[in-house]
Amino acid sequence: xxxxxxxxxxxxxxxxxxxxxxxxxxxxxxxxxxxxxxxxxxxxxxxxxxxxxxxxxxxxxxxxxxxxxxxxxxxxxxxxxxxxxxxxxxxxxxxxxxxxxxxxxxxxxxxxxxxxxxxxxxxxxxxxxxxxxxxxxxxxxxxxxxxxxxxxxxxxxxxxxxxxxxxxxxxxxxxxxxxxxxxxxxxxxxxxxxxxxxxxxxxxxxxxxxxxxxxxxxxxxxxxxxxxxxxxxxxxxxxxxxxxxxxxxxxxxxxxxxxxxxxxxxxxxxxxxxxxxxxxxxxxxxxxxxxxxxxxxxxxxxxx
Length: 304
Fold this sequence. Notes:
single chain, Glucose Oxidase, domain 1, 2 domains, 10 helices
């Protein structure tokens, strides 16, 4: 049981305003504009501060700048949900500057992936916020229709979510239930040993990555395993590992590292850096069934 009370944000409705933040790297302005159009087509208004386009090397402005925008979006009563412009790198740097108490008092729909993994996990561990692992503004510009429909469905339909893995690869068979968590492997690995390292006890853990050599995936998983990160997890689901070598090699690495763990491991979900990138909630209970190739969420991610 998580020590904090779970904070579910209010469900969005068409016409609500989505606030845009850039907590990590700078982004392409044309792709950004095209991504905003997708959000508007889905039915949302969009809002972003004029200084969101600031740059400081490989960061979208200073740490204080990026953190201030994030904090202000949570406290702005006109903003009903928040979506990130892109990932890259930098979210890790703003963790000490985030007002988690304010977020707990103003729970809102929050969407992102990749480098934003640190925020999704920190929001849950520090204030119990349920969030969404899903596409970001820049990637929406060229996203598959399946990606956009998945985002639209979870944001606007009041229904329990089931995610099917059509091209599933069963690494370890079985069934398990737990709280959905995880995200980008590299980003999660860099949280180990920090005050923001998530507790994966009782979790169904999603892992995905991009552009990492198989030996680096091996090293990160072994690092986390030896650090005790996986001791009490309930199951593992693998999303896309784009540009990480042959998928079968990645699956062999996972099989080897978790060979003595009696947990189900299912690979092949369309979640992560490749397309399509399906949206799933973090912080609510889910059931994993490798024989059916499904993630069945047992509760709604938002307040009715």
